[in-house]
Amino acid sequence: MHLALRIARRFGVFLLSLLGASLLIFLLTNALPGDVAQVLLGTDATPEAVAKLRAQLGLDRPLPVQYLSWLGGILVGDFGHSHLNGQPVLALLAPRIAVTMWLVLFGLLGSLLIALPAGMVAALKRRSWPGFTISAAAQLGMAVPVFWGGILLVLVFSVGLHWLPANGYVPLARNPAQWAAHLVLPSVTLALVQAAVLIRYVRSAFIEVLNEDYFRTARSIGWTPMRALLRHGLRNAAISLVTVIGLQLSSVLVGAIVVESVYTLPGLGSMLLTAVGQRDLVVVQGTVMFLVLAVLLISALVDFSYLLIDPRQGASARSDDGRTAA
Amino acid sequence: MKRAQLVIGLVLVGLVVVTAVVSIFWTPFDPVRVVPGQRLLGPGWPHLLGTDGFGIDIVSRLMVGARTVLFVGIISVGLAAVVGVPLGMLAGQAGGWVDEVVMRVADIVYAFPALLLAILLAAVFGGSTLTAMAAIGIASIPAFARVARAGSLQVIASDFVLAARASGTSRWAIAGRHVLPNLAPLVGVQASVGFALAILAEAALSYLGLATPRPNPTWGNMLRDAQELMWVAPLQALWPGLAIALAVLGFNLLGDGLRDYLDPRLREVS
């Protein structure tokens, strides 16, 4: 019952965040002086022409009405229509979702593959050179902007060695080998930069485990530090790491947008930038809303699974309720 | 070792500041005027790092770029601190529903990346230094609010605040006289880390063409230009990236160093 209550509360937070984010997006693109009709017609348009277009686009309605009709549309999957060619935003997004999704997926997996072992070693050997080296490398990696990392990798592997393509994309269904070849550098770029940030979290999560009683007990019965860490530490550190990965998600997505631009991948990010260049506000608005919706939805799902996995959550829920009741 | 972090951070940050200040009065060459006969010179003399695709001295452009980075950082981090710290103090001291509302809104803004905010602003107003600063500043408010809230909760629970309250000092006087001064170190650390994030964000935005446009040099838009010349002049893509990385490293080390210096108990974990 307490679990159900917590899930319900988390769902409430999700709905509230969604409402807040949609309001923020809507106000930024609508309530500010930059007007869609004015932008579309240019600064030398007659006031009559602007007024006519405003009426046509429904911009002469009161703001709350506009907001509700926009939000209502999104709830049924209607993200608006492009001002430039009249196409529905969702139809423009659909063919590009896969590109960004692959990039985010590989970037996230790659960063975990690097950061988990590296962070573990950094924690175990924190007073000797391997730990010091890993921490220093992470510190340096955090300072590298993701697009520069991408440019450097292209310089080495495309310009220098001619091993991998410098840009472009081939769909999986058309040619799997080419698809993979075009995704290697973008994914590695994203993974490396994300891993640098993640290593610090992994390291401190494991250092906390090293200070626990159960770890000392495992050591005292003769287990090696590595064995104790793998048997007990991994599971305990995982709990705090799930939260971090949830938080990382939005930064991976932002990283993917930038990486798409470096490698000219036809994903959601490049679409967003094109729409900004064309001042197609509805497409920008719809795409940003779509991205925010995806981030909020996935982080809510991560939290749900976390509530179900970790039995201690139930216990802490009980003590929470006890305290508020008292 | 930890002291070394602080020293290296200070040196790197100092280097950026000095370069930016000098660039106001002097650069070796004109940082924006196109010189057709001098395109893509390699490193040498008098152009230490060579010239770019427009024949402009790279060192001069890097120096002016440092100024842009500091300007954007100061304004956006300043905005975030001036709005975020009072909000966080309010949330921490008022508690109850005020706390709940302020921190919920902060969570929503926190979930909203600076890049997406900047994209929205650029779509409405056209990308400029101003939209970039506004986006980075707004996106950084929640971090300051959180730090200020956590800090003021800690200060309020301390004995000297209890003593002040017992002697009849008002809420506002306690906030101004006891809480704010004790928050200063925490806010300083957050400002340093926030500065590093602001530099990265500004660079990404200029690279994407959403912030300071050409011909005004920023490290980000220099890399945008350099990428187009990657096949003929690969070295061009080295210097601006190096400048960004060193500046970010400097502010990160300064922040970490300050944190350890102020709170030795955290040394082990962070």
Pick out its properties.
heterodimer; A: MetI-like fold; 2 domains; 13 helices; 80% helix; B: 270 residues; MetI-like fold
Secondary-structure topology with pairs:
The complex is a heterodimer of chains A (about 325) and B (about 270).
Chain A: H1 2-30, H2 36-41, H3 47-57, H4 63-75, H5 89-124, H6 129-143, H7 146-160, H8 176-210, H9 213-220, H10 225-262, H11 268-277, H12 281-309, H13 311-325
Helix pairs in contact in A: 1-12, 5-6, 5-8, 5-10, 6-8, 7-8, 7-10, 8-10, 9-10, 10-12, 11-12
Chain B: H1 2-25, H2 58-94, H3 96-110, H4 114-125, H5 129-156, H6 159-166, H7 171-207, H8 219-228, H9 239-262
Helix pairs in contact in B: 1-2, 1-9, 2-3, 2-5, 2-7, 3-5, 4-5, 5-7, 7-8, 7-9, 8-9
What is the CATH homologous superfamily assignment of chain B?
Answer: MetI-like
- How many separate helices of chain A? 13
Instruction: List the uncertain runs of chain B.
Output: none
Can you tell me the CATH class of the largest domain in chain A?
Mainly Alpha
Using only CA atoms, what is the Rg of chain B? Answer: 22 Å
Would you tell me the structural class of the helices and strands of chain A?
mainly alpha
Mean pLDDT of chain B: 86
Count structural domains of chain A: 2
Span between termini of chain A: 20 Å
Largest sheet of chain A: none
Percentage of residues in strands of chain B: under 5%
Largest sheet of chain B: none
Per the principal axes of the C-alpha atoms, what is the gross shape of chain A? globular
Provide the domain count of chain B. Answer: 1
Q: Tally the beta strands of chain B.
A: 0
If classified by CATH, what would the architecture of the largest domain in chain A be? Orthogonal Bundle
CATH class of chain B: Mainly Alpha
Classified in CATH, the superfamily of the largest domain in chain A is MetI-like
Helix content of chain B: over 70%
Most extensive protein-chain contact, per-chain counts: A-B, 55 and 48 residues
N to C succession of SSEs of chain A: HHHHHHHHHHHHH
